[in-house]
Structure to design on (394 residues):
């Protein structure tokens, strides 16, 4: 899985997915309903036009049959087949064989009235077979006035109706997302208040631990101090993550050319005490003098979260392989791993896949934010029960 600089950060992944799902379903069903209404209206207009044509053609048929009857009884060279430029006709016998035709389109004798390829056909059966005609077909051009009226009404009424549907959809979307947004705002407010309260005691604990002289302490006291140190560093790391989420848009960042090799070594040393508590060991393959242009605090935060996750989701007695070379940083653990189908969701804020491990589900979201902001690429690979590897490419 890859996350590149083209990712959209305007909405949380959960909001985006909910929004896309809702709008897709809403627009699909709304479009289907509107098309169905348009289809019914189209057929209504067409049927209305055919009914008007039926009345006209029935009247015309009476006069035509009278002329045909007269021609049948007094057939001679002086009498001609009834002809009208506006209305074309044809006569067929009882076997449906054409006797005479002026039609443009071949008729369907099973239908009384229909439209075909722009021509309207009206089929009439006279009371008697004049000139052997069992069927008389009348054909007139469809002037398409009804169709033009249909299109005008669709534009006049359909576009405002579609706009109305979109507006309703927008307000429904706001109503649909409102509970989610309120929950997220409440959570963010809680995090902001919590981080504010954590700052002073965490700083005091870390400062006092560093001043403690453990040389004259017995092993029991040393273990207690070590546990306090581990807990304080864990709280400090969480505090830094929460602060970054709240303030990262407000804090001015300064990109500079950093010695990434030294930073990675320093962060491994910082997390060594926490790693030792789970008997997790670092296996380092760090090339010298690897540099990258990035804000220093962002670089530290990105590396800290990768290492912290590798410790948190590792097995007791496991290993963390950290490799750094030109253009690539890799952090691989021997931990619990995860299924391939979950990899696409690991960067979602507050998303957690293992409730037995601590955390708020924000570490990898921060990694994703920093990577996007600095044009870095993140590649994640994992196998359930074996490993998880995160690569940062630049």
């Amino acid at each position: 899985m890859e996350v590149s600089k083209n990712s959209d950060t305007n909405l949380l992944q959960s909001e985006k997915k909910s929004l896309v799902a809702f709008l897709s379903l809403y627009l699909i069903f709304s479009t289907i309903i509107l098309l169905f209404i348009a289809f019914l209206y189209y057929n209504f207009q067409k049927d209305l036009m055919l009914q008007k044509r039926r009345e006209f053609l029935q009247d015309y048929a009476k006069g035509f049959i009278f002329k045909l009857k007269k021609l049948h009884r007094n057939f001679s060279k002086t009498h001609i087949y009834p002809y009208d430029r506006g209305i074309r006709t044809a006569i067929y016998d009882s076997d449906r064989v054409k006797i005479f035709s002026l039609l443009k389109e071949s008729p369907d004798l099973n239908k009384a009235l229909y439209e075909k390829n722009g021509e309207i056909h009206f089929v009439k059966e006279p009371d008697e077979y004049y000139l052997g005609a069992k069927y008389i077909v009348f054909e007139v051009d469809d002037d398409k006035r009804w169709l033009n009226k249909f299109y005008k009404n669709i534009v006049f009424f359909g576009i405002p109706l579609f706009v109305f549907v979109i507006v309703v959809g927008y307000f429904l979307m706001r109503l649909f997302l409102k509970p989610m947004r309120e929950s997220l705002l409440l959570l963010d407010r809680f995090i902001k208040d919590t981080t504010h309260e954590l700052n002073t005691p965490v700083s005091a604990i870390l400062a006092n631990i560093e001043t403690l002289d453990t040389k004259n302490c017995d092993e029991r006291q040393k273990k207690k101090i070590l546990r306090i140190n581990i807990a304080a560093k864990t709280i400090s790391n969480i505090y830094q993550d929460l602060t970054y989420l709240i303030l990262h848009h407000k804090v001015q960042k300064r990109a500079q050319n950093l010695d990434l090799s030294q930073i990675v070594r320093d962060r491994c040393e910082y997390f060594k005490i926490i790693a030792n508590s789970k008997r997790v060991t670092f296996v380092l393959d760090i090339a010298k003098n690897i540099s990258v242009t990035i804000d220093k605090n962002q670089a530290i935060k990105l590396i800290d979260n990768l290492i912290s996750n590798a410790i948190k989701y590792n097995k007791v007695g496991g290993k963390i392989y950290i490799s750094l070379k030109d253009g690539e940083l890799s952090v691989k653990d021997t931990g619990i791993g995860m299924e391939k189908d979950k990899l696409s969701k690991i960067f979602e804020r507050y998303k957690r896949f293992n409730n037995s491990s601590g955390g708020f589900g924000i570490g990898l979201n921060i990694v994703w934010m920093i990577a996007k902001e600095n044009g870095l690429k993140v590649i994640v690979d994992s196998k359930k029960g074996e490993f998880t590897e995160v690569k940062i490419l630049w």
Q: What stands out?
A: The first strand starts at residue 2 and ends at 3.
